[in-house]
Amino acid sequence: MVSMTAGSPEGTLKYEIPEGLFPALDYWARTRTELDDRQQESQNAALAASMRPPGRPFFPVDDVFLRDLEALKEQARLALLARRDAY
Q1: Which residues is 11 bridged to in the sheet?
Q2: Which of 42, 47, 60, 68 could form a disulfide with 24 if both were Cys (CB 3.0 to 4.6 A apart)?
């Protein structure tokens, strides 16, 4: 399950998205968690050594991820159109 939040004028909305539904989102969540964990370890080590903490790590993007992201964009567009038509 991937948890995401989005801001709105009324407050913050929380979305729970089942794993496997959107491969690009699963990849992003998994990779971001790994990168955040590694960054935290690097920052802790730098602070312990009285050094400047490193910057945010690079997020790797490949052709498969970009294709999945395009598919996700199209699914979102269709979902928004369907929602608009329902009102």
Answers
A1: 8
A2: 68
For the ranges 8-17, 29-38, 56-65, 67-76, the lowest mean pLDDT is seen at 8-17
Contact status, residue 53 vs residue 47, Cβ threshold 8 Å: yes
Average pLDDT, stretch 54-62?
80
What secondary structure letter does DSSP report for 56?
P
Read off φ and ψ for residue 16, nearest 5 degrees: -110, 115
Among candidate residues 32, 34, 29, the one with its CA nearest the CA of residue 4: 29
CB-based contact 39:53 (threshold 8 Å): no
In the numeric block, which tokens belong to residue 66? 């970009």
CB 31 within 8 Å of CB 58:
no
